[in-house]
Amino acid sequence: MDYGIGEYLTCSFMSKEESIREAIEDAGFEATLIEDDIDERSAITVCRLRIKGMTCTSCSSTVESALEKVQGVKKAVVALATEEAEIRYDPKQVNYKQLIDAVDDTGFEALLISTGEDRNKVHLKLERTLSDREIRVIQQSLQALPGVEDTEVDVQLENITVSYNPDLTGPRTFIDVIGETYPGRCKATLFQPGGLGGPDRSEEIKQYYKSFLWSLAFTVPVFLLAMVFMYTPGIKRGLELRLVNMLMLGALLRWILSTPVQFIIGWRFYTGAYKALRRGSANMDVLIALGTNVAYFYSVYTVLRAATDNSFKGTDFFETSAMLISFILLGKYLEVLAKGKTSEAIAKLMDLAPDTATLLTLDSHGNVVSERTISSQLIQRNDIIKILPGEKVSADGLVVWGQSHVNESMITGEARPVAKRIGEEVIGGTVNENGVLHIRATHVGSESALSQIVRLVEAAQMAKAPVQKFADKISKFFVPLVIVISFTTWLAWFVAGKIGSYPKSWIPSSMDEFELALQFGISVMVIACPCALGLATPTAVMVGTGVGATQGVLIKGGKALESAHKVDCIIFDKTGTLTIGKPIVINTKFMKNMVLHDFYEIVAAAEANSEHPLAKAVVEYAKSLRGESSEASRLQEASRLPEAQDFVSITGHGVKARVHNKNVLVGNVKLMLDSGITISEDAFDILKEVEGMARTGILVSINGELVGIISISDPVKPEARDVVSILKSMKIKSIMVTGDNWGTANAIAKEVGIETVMAETLPEGKAVKVKELQESGMTVAMVGDGINDSPALVAADVGMAIGAGTDIAIEAADIVLMRSNLEDVITAIDLSRSTFRRIRLNYLWALGYNVMGIPIAAGLLFPFIRFRLPPWIAGAAMAASSVSVVCCSLLLRYYKRPRKLDLLQMQTVRIQ
């Protein structure tokens, strides 16, 4: 389950490029090392930052643009919904501290989540203050340990960062050494610096909730003074008490109560607007600050004018500014609350890891000497861990003792418990059902399957869907356009009132032309909502990819999700995709007299170096023959197969080798004919019969003579036919492409209901077929599991890799089907369609809200039905629009896969 295999392979390759070049030259060919390309690819480091303070798409675009301008940065992606940035950069030109500074310069706060160098790095917190000498002693003690590469000490924060080789040591050893250096005086614990551990939504939620309550404490009295008490006999008389000239008590109280809301509780909007304007952009904070300031300072003007003029009559709007801020804070609180739920899938995945583990100590004979409970974070590679029935497996590893059944549904989605015996792999986070297991940890910390799945989902939620570009384009001019519309609205109504374009009766008795126009202008400014547009896509993608992970479908980002919903053609590989992928030898036909055991010894020796599933089936069958023979043969079984010399693998055709000084060819008809081997009519008849039964015929030639035909069968997956049928009902065409012969390919295709077949196709031929279909206007998905499928997986619009397939295929794919079940192909497509229906609905609401809301706020309906939208109601509508978009995306959490698949699963259970 190592989804980082591509990176590992690249690094391994880069470290050996010179030896590879020399090997090519030794073979008689000329090779040149392309230094620039190697250096560029090997130098790239990935850094993740948490960005605080972003409110809309304009903010994320500004940060992204600032990061991409830093010299050495190759690519930067900033996600508004996750509040994270992922930066690919050259560490020779820039470091992560400079990236943080670049974000800080834009007015936002950046915290380091991780860098590419953190994979084998641990942070330790000292629990008491030590002297400089004591810290130096601890540092020297750690540096003396085998496997420790570097240590860094931060005296102020009292923490130590250790870089190490996980094959030789680990964090438990470091903590033990620190404790033993000063027994009873010093202890160390693991800690996560900066932005590690996911966004702390709880603190943000508390802050907004607290701000909203304080705002409410001042706004409710302002509202009562302006809207209720002014119409209540008795109280009204007291509020209209004149203090100085025309200044009334009610106006003074409203001013006093609204001021803390405007400048203390609403200070965040001032700082946000200042930072945006300082960097030459405008965001939602600018609209809020402008709208509330206009209402507040005009009200201050009316109060001061009333206090200095005994004939002035004006209306204040203190309740407008206070209520606007209160409703916006309420909306922000609800939005953050809802956004926290969009990342629940990752939180659930992280919670699968158990808190503790039982560590066993063994003697030299493998007997258990002692056991102790440790934190699961302190497990090191090659530790022996005890797993009791009902406990969670605490690390990826191999079973070294015991047998049991393990429930892997939380990782793979597979409901049935899987039998585990000695030598079999277990995955951290899964649940041991019955027996006791002892496992040897093989992948711990960031290398575990669970950690890599979490990273894959996080990366998917960071990746932008192409449809997001639509919102990004709008965000660039949205706020300036709204400000222009707002000013134009105020000017139009004010001028129209002054020149008498509408009757005086339209103006409320408490206002004049200027104040009526001002209300319309403020309403336009505060009703416009760029946030809803910015959240429409990322929130839906976050929830969709999270839901996919819980269903055993890992979707690598918004682009894959968007492409999958358009798929109208799926190409299936045969072996391991439509079939189970574990071929077995059915029978053997000889063209001349031979001993079966001797025949398979030669063939298995030739096939032993091949990775093809059919080759593995032949080798396994040869081993089984040895096991069924006499005592002498059983002794021989322990020995190795004969050595194959001059081995050559001919992709898509077979292998050549010399075994016992005999020239051996194992492969298909084309290999034999190309090598000048004569194939008799009887042999062709046998092949035709074999292929007619949906089996594969492998021809074997020794010393230029065809000596035998091996019949191999790879059973079709039980769900394959129904999946093809359901895809047809979804108007998706199914095609099978295989390197196998035409006879077997046609038989398998007929069995599963596929009409279009391509057989005897080389790996590059699969990619060519994908491109041909794309050129015809189809959106193509490729489903495969092997290395030979990788070119087609990359070429397809959507590459889907079977989870049990090779790591290279998984790396090349856009979607990984964890359960290796073809039903999940339908789940992936159906989930992507549901997600994009939700995105369309979000955009429809966000755009419709702005397109309809702004004209209504500008007074479009006022001349006809006298409907006027007060600014505070406009502000409430703006806050509600963002919340409604996030809630709409959250409904995806209740996604259920198509009912046809549940019925199909029930039928499969009955059959079994």
Q: Residue-averaged pLDDT, rounded?
A: 82
Oligomer: single chain
Number of strands: 32
> How big is the Rg?
35 Å
The main β sheet shows up as: 7 strands, mixed
% residues in beta strands: 15-25%
* Main β-sheet, spatial strand arrangement: 20-32-31-30-21-28-29
Uncertain regions spanning at least 5 consecutive residues: 1-16, 35-41, 628-639, 906-912
N- to C-terminal distance: 28 Å
* Total count of helical runs of at least 4 residues: 35
- Helix- and strand-based class? alpha+beta
Percent range of helical residues: 40-55%
- The shape is elongated
Characterise this structure.
By secondary structure, the chain is of the alpha+beta class. The chain has 35 helices and 32 strands. Helices cover 51% and strands 19% of the residues. The chain has a 7-stranded mixed beta sheet with strand order 20-32-31-30-21-28-29, sandwiched between helices. Strands 12-11-13-19-14-17 form a 6-stranded antiparallel beta sheet, with no helix packed on it. A 6-stranded antiparallel beta sheet has the order 22-27-26-25-24-23. β2 and β3 form a beta hairpin. α16 packs antiparallel against α19 and α19 runs parallel beside α34. The longest helix has 35 residues, at 823-857. The protein starts with a helix and ends with a helix. The model is unreliable at 1-16, 35-41, 628-639 and 906-912 (pLDDT under 50).
